[in-house]
């Protein structure tokens, strides 16, 4: 494993060398353990939401954040990108578009 981290890429093992050192039985056992842990539903974090005093951030579920975010989808066929100067909005048009978007949100 340490060879894989060598700062000199020429000293790192090739994929063939790594493959030769892998034991198929150990890989099967490791996969079996992973699958059992997933099926058991055991939480891997002892206290989710608990923040270490020296950490800057911590992991948390983002499902609610993702669901509540509003995403505007644009279809490139609605715009003609052949000449940007011809298609650019005037300041007034841009402000009108912003006003319309605010009323939609």
Automatic annotation (TrEMBL):
Alphabetical list of InterPro entries matching this protein: HLH_DNA-bd_sf
Molecular function in Gene Ontology: protein dimerization activity
Protein name: 16695_t:CDS:1
Source superkingdom: Eukaryota
UniProt feature, compositional bias: Acidic residues: 95-105
Organism, as annotated: Acaulospora morrowiae
Region spans: Disordered: 82-105
Source species taxonomy: Eukaryota, Fungi, Fungi incertae sedis, Mucoromycota, Glomeromycotina
